[in-house]
Amino acid sequence: MFYLSFPRGVKWLIVANVVAFLLEWFGALPIGSPFALIPWDVIHRAEIWQLVTYMFLHAGIFHILFNMLMLWMFGAPIEDTWGMRRFLEYYFVCGVGSALCVIAADFAFGDPLRPLIGASGAVFGLLLAYGVLFPDQTVLMMFLFPIKAKYMVMIYGVIELLLVFRIESPVSSLAHLGGMLFGYAYIKWQFGSRRRRPAYASGRGFSFDLERRWKEYKLQRARKKFQVYLKKHGSNRNPWEQ
Asked: Do residues 164 and 186 both lie within one domain?
């Protein structure tokens, strides 16, 4: 799945991440800087900016390439559906929520002095939102295996849950799960009840109202089937035209 759109929110997030990575690369912004997420510093030194800044730091070129590719692939269709403001709000809710989960776990069971960097928590939140918005869209899992988005989200969720118990892993699966958890909570809070479900659309006219989108999808399928039927019987007139 390659989505050709490049909306503003996704573009500026990628630009910000690349700029921060270049500063790291040339030594102007060390990975161990005050901008990485260190649970001890957030709680005991009130360095709360780390809840956001850690998302823009990466440990290496493959780390940032993977996260930015995922941000574009799954973030672009979400932003085109929700609009930039709601997309960015969701992205940062997932990222900050991921950080809060890591802080709580590190103080309870882990090492609160261990730094955390990367946009993976927010990106996994985007992955979950994509599975909710486009559940039957076929995507290439690991760029190899075609699978419906909803199943891919489930598989990744189970994998990350199992990896949480892996000792001394350089990858924080808890951060990934935290992003998905806060993403799910955001979606349920914003759109879970009919009372709170707005007719919210972006400039391209898409809406997040899943029930309406499903009805439109079924109507389009019915139109295509009817047009195929007419062609088989020698009629070229579009019955949907008035």
From this structure: yes
